[in-house]
TrEMBL record:
The lineage of its organism: Bacteria, Bacillati, Bacillota, Bacilli, Lactobacillales. It holds the Pfam family Hydrolase_3. SUPFAM superfamilies: HAD-like. This is Cof subfamily protein (Haloacid dehalogenase superfamily).
Length: 275
């Protein structure tokens, strides 16, 4: 029996207009009414999640969200941190060093409230990405993020696809030795503390809640969902998912523009509960 549903946001819960289809909201409420935990699992920072989570109307006493690609687990009642993984000063320096010879690549860092970018200039692409998570980039120095009293959860390299392809080809192997890395979008290459993924956070939360992996269903569409989907007892790829994601999943649902999340919950959770 499914007791927890882990749901990615972009390309999964959200449609192409970055909106939550009403069918998804209705299905989530039906699942919660049956005692199923709903956990948002996203690469987004907190600024890009709170207002959307509010739209879901899931204001239960004990709801959770896994953000920053697994670096953080929040209690959604007051958005306090239940657990987190953070970068060391050495990690932050290595990220900065890796990007310094690539003028077309921006190096960014995230804490719970800031979207930092190294340097004085903010490229249009970084401003665009920050707007997607309802914030603005803050130009900063390496020394500032290294000496911050607030934990820095992860770093991101950002650039147009051809420039980022070159960067990943030349720096990816080295970075993957020190970090958990993922090309989450064509213009984003992410670096989390080593061993940190959506799956590692989901496993930790499941253990906290006394749940087994077999009682977890995960729904996703992209490369940063792969570990989470592999961990879950029931894995669901969106209809718009990459072929790599579809290949490892137990089920394929409709696309994010066809309320595929609602379809999966109705067929695999609610219908099963009714039998």
């Amino acid at each position: 029996m499914i007791k927890l549903i882990a749901i990615d946001m972009d390309g999964t819960l959200l449609n192409s207009q970055k909106e939550v289809p009403k069918e998804n909201i209705a299905a989530l409420h039906q699942a919660v009414e049956k005692g199923v935990k709903v956990v948002i699992c996203t690469g987004r920072p907190k600024s890009g999640v709170v207002s959307i989570f509010d739209q879901l109307g899931l204001d239960g006493e004990e709801e959770y969200a896994i953000l920053d690609n697994g670096c953080t687990i929040y209690k959604t009642k007051d958005w306090s941190l239940l657990a987190h993984q953070s970068l060391s000063q050495e990690d932050m320096a290595l990220l900065a060093e890796s990007g310094k010879d690539y003028p077309d690549i921006s190096v960014t860092y995230f804490d719970s409230d800031h979207y930092y970018i190294l340097g004085e200039d903010v490229p249009e692409l970084v401003t665009y990405d920050a707007a997607l998570v309802f914030t603005t980039p803050t130009p900063t120095t390496l020394e500032h993020v290294q000496n911050s009293s607030i934990p820095i959860f992860q770093g991101m390299f950002m650039g147009e696809a051809p420039a980022l392809d070159r960067f990943q080809e030349e720096q990816g192997d080295k970075l993957s030795q020190h970090f958990s890395t993922v090309r989450s979008q064509s213009y984003i290459y992410e670096a989390m503390p080593k061993g940190t993924t959506k799956a590692s956070a989901l496993a930790r939360l499941a253990e906290t809640l006394g749940l087994e992996a077999e009682e977890v269903m995960a729904i996703g569409d992209a490369a940063n969902d792969l570990e989470m989907l592999s961990f879950a007892g029931v894995s669901v790829a969106m209809g718009n998912a990459s072929e790599e994601v579809k290949a490892i999943c137990d089920h394929v649902t409709a696309s994010n523009d066809e309320a595929g999340v609602a379809r999966a919950i109705e067929e695999l959770v609610l219908a099963a509960e009714n039998h």
